[in-house]
């Protein structure tokens, strides 16, 4: 699996988590004023998930599934 594919999969995971947080608010919202806090929450959660996924322990965990980026392109052949 190429590093670009791994990054794409990781981005999808982060986005799904963020949207999952916002989905109840989006479904319940009747106007933009009701959806704004949920959208802000989704952005915040996506940022937190992105930060957590950058942690070394999470990198090791993801590497078990072939999604880690720890040793990719170590020889400069990306």
What can be said about this structure in brief?
By secondary structure, the chain is an all-alpha fold. It has three helices and no strands.
Walk me through what this model shows.
With 78 residues, the protein is mainly alpha-helical. It has helices at residues 3-28, 32-53, 56-63. The termini are close together. The mean pLDDT is 74.
Q: How much helical structure, as a percent, in the residues?
A: over 70%
* Terminal residue distance: 12 Å
State the major sheet.
none
Topology order in helix (H) and strand (E) letters: HHH
Mean pLDDT equals: 74
Throw out a few tags for this protein.
78 residues, mainly alpha, 3 helices, 72% helix
Which helices and strands, and how do they pair?
Elements: H1 3-28, H2 32-53, H3 56-63
Helix pairs in contact: 1-2
């Amino acid at each position: 699996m190429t590093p670009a594919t791994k990054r794409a999969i990781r981005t999808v995971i982060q986005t799904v988590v963020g949207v999952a947080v916002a989905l109840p608010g989006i479904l319940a919202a009747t106007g933009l004023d009701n959806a704004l806090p949920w959208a802000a929450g989704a952005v915040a959660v996506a940022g937190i998930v992105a930060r957590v996924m950058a942690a070394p322990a999470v990198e090791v965990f993801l590497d078990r599934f072939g999604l880690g980026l720890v040793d990719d392109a170590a020889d400069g052949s990306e």
